[in-house]
Amino acid sequence: MRPPKRLRRRVKSAALLALCAVAVLITLLPLASILFECLVNGAGAITPAFFLKNPPAPCNPAPGVTCPVGGIQDAIVGTLLLVVVASLIALPIGILAGIYLSEFQDRPLARPARFLADVMTGIPSIVIGVFVFGIFLFFAQEGWISSFSIVSGFTGAVALAVIMIPVVARTCEEALRLVPTSIREASLALGIPRHRTILRIVLSAARGGVITGALLAVARAGGETAPLLLTAGFTTGAITGLSGWTPSLPVLIYQFSAGGYANTTQLAWGAALMLVLIMLLISVGARLALRNRFGGRTA
Amino acid sequence: MTGDKLVVENLNAWYGKTHAVQDISLSFPDKRATAIIGPSGCGKSTFIRCLNRIHETQPKARAEGKVLLDSQDVYADDPTEIRGKIGMVFQRPNVFPTMSIYGNVAAGLKLHGGYSHDEMDRLVIESLKKAALWEEVKEKLDQSALQLSGGQQQRLCIARALAVQPEVLLMDEPASALDPISTARIEDLIFDLKNQVPVVIVTHNMQQAARVADRTAFLYLGKLVEVAPTRDLFERPTEKLTESYITGRFG
Amino acid sequence: MAGARVERKALSEELNTLRENMQTIATLSVQAIERAVAGLDSPDAAVVGDVSAIDREVYGLKERIVRNCVETIALHAPVAKDLRTITVALEVTTDLDRIGRYAKDIAESAHELHREGDGRESLPKLREMGSLTVGMIRTAVNAYLAGDATSVSHIHSDDDAVDRFHDELFQLIIDGMARRSVTPRTGAECILINRYLERLSDHAVNIGEWVVYLVTGERPVRLPRRPSPPPP
User: Fold this and answer.
1) What is the pLDDT of residues A14-30, one digit of tens each?
2) Domain count, chain C
3) Which of A171, A282, B145, B161 could disulfide-pair with A219, CB 3.0 to 4.6 Å?
4) ipTM, 2 decimals?
5) Residues 150-209 of B with CB under 8 A from C
6) How far apart are CA A246 and CA A233, in angstroms?
């Protein structure tokens, strides 16, 4: 009886392994193909001018017509601006919310808050865009802001912040929860007051997870297109601070890829490549942040 | 003659509905080590955690009664202040993972505020010496606390607790996670420490209580069964229950 | 798991073995002294041999018991009653060994006495004292084996009676030697037997006191003793 049983087991193991490997490959296929397409199509756009000039008038190459190449400078700056302002709003609020959810679990507000945060991470970003737009519209109707400011960099940043906050809050909460209770007890037992225990000891112990959560939220915000369409607008001109229409990479890609004009399409591919590379950089950064500063171990 | 440093009167404690500590009155003399022994679940950990008010940090935990440190009721005011006066060492070493060895020992001082650099250095060195750890770590004070062995980490926790100069030291099964040599080191430590600070040690290892404590209290199902000088308790206990437990014939 | 009684089997077994050994050595020691005291009556030459044999056995058993007790302490770190059981066994086994030795000495002295042939004056008194002493030893040993502290409550007064007997007899023998109604040899052997019996009763008291400690954990209060005449 023995040889057939052993052989059967081995065959089954090998078959399962093969199946899993194929599944993994299929999973990686879209990612690989995206990277490939972006590289192939977008690499050509990456020139010094790409970073220094603004988008040109759309045109198609024709005999006797040389299309200007242009660049996406302000779109890059715009994305940075939007993300930075959104982070300045969302990170403090999100981290404090995460602290509340983790450290004050027994308060009555905690369970509903957690539930709402989870719901919010699932709300389509276009809906959030509409919501924020609606609020600023209301402000303008009340006369608190000028109607020119409804669609602006600031509005876009607020929309991104609203998307980021629940993500930051939940990842921060999870990171804090991973810190063992014994650490908190050790700190309290030394006579360290609770607020210092949370801010200086627990948060510090969880900082790898918190930073990762923040970076992932930033990455998500940087890639959102739909809300920015409504709230930040788009322009091929120069940025005029946060109060005007602010271009961004995702919106640029949207605007230029459907145009059908060769030069702007090329810029769109270049922008897509940039966006993908930035996302990759942030993911790598998040992984590095998980390492304990004393080297090697994850926090 | 040593007076009583810590006096417990009619202490009751609950976890939700469970009445874990039932009307215990006990006193702890100064400059002595007192051991609290008893089978698992007898409430000894809960009891000791009520003394520095760590018990109440757990959800649904409640305590009633009087705990007097030098005649001042520990439950009267803000717990933070009293926790600075009653130190605690836990069952498993719980060093702060993101801090260096120096940082760990100084944590209580730094986050309390009001100490100069020199004072902190002095207290850190003194505490590490009292915890018999100085020689082993003096060359690597700024390295991570996590690279120390289990026994060393526990001694680090002891140093950390001592740095804030507590008036009483509580130890909740401090050696139960350690190997015999580390355990023996910690027992020697307690032997020296008790002359400076009264020590209350919870242990499930009776032999440890016998080796280390001047007085031993036996708890069973939340109640205090017997308390006596250790020599007397282990030679001729008064209660049958105590005799059953310490001779290991429990049923 | 709940409700199952913990027995500490290894230690229990050692304590059982100890109890059996103590039973044996106690029985042997009592046998030895009974034989020796009975030998005060009859000039049976076999008495010395018999008692010596028992004494040797007692000694060997004592050595074994002591070794086992030390090992048990090393291995099991006994406390409370277990600890008292072992320490009392160590003490009592010494007393029993001494009882065996004195029994042999009495048998030898009695043999000499019978050879001399003129112990008529002292022998009845010695026999009386002997049976008192044997009674005390039996009481103490039985109390020990039964773990009963109450039956030894009068052991100190019994000992006082034996002491008084000893003093009277001592004087009697001295007077006899002075009057030359007994030979020096006879007188000497009688004094020795007198002394052995008195010492034996002390050992019985020791055993009694250890029984009290075993049961209560307290050492009994010793009454002040009357001064004894100087040893031979």
Assistant:
1) 999 999 999 999 999 99
2) 1
3) A282
4) 0.93
5) 206-207
6) 6
